[in-house]
Amino acid sequence: MLSKKLEDALNEQMNWEIYSAHIYLSMSSHFAQKGLGGIAQWMNAQYKEEMFHAMKFFDYILEAGGKAQLGQIDAPPLTWESPLAAFEEALEHERDVTARINRIADLAVEEKNHAVGIFLQWFISEQIEEEDSVGDIVDKMKLVSDGSGLFMLDRDLGARVFAESAE
Ligand SMILES: [Fe+2]
Ligand SMILES: [Fe+2]
Fold this sequence. Notes:
By secondary structure, the chain is an all-alpha fold. The chain is 75% helix and 0% strand. It contains five helices and no strands. The structure holds fe (ii) ion (2 copies).
């Protein structure tokens, strides 16, 4: 069973995951258009991962007897000054997501809803990985400027594929 407050919080997070997906898809479009196909591919995989997160909330809300409620999603930004700026923004965004998930976990503890707590454990671990992988790319981006370093980093990032079974 979900209290109204928890159901609302889970729904808000589901919609926030869709917003996250849109940010990454917008980044994918931006960098594809700039000729950075590897970064575009990485962002596209990240888009799929965020939609997978949204669907985890969707399925859980229904399973717990609530109603998944799709809301209005804000338009994402459309352009970024550089690949570094985009990955720095992504890192900032992931930290915000972590804070949001922690707040829902706090609420679950307050309400002694251990089932929701267990459900959120997966996301708490996932966010450690997300912050780590994006932070790692930010560090690498800082090492390369334009030119051959960026060319090689773009090629490396293009190797990423989203596989739901690996999640
Ligand atoms: Fe996510
Ligand atoms: Fe994420």
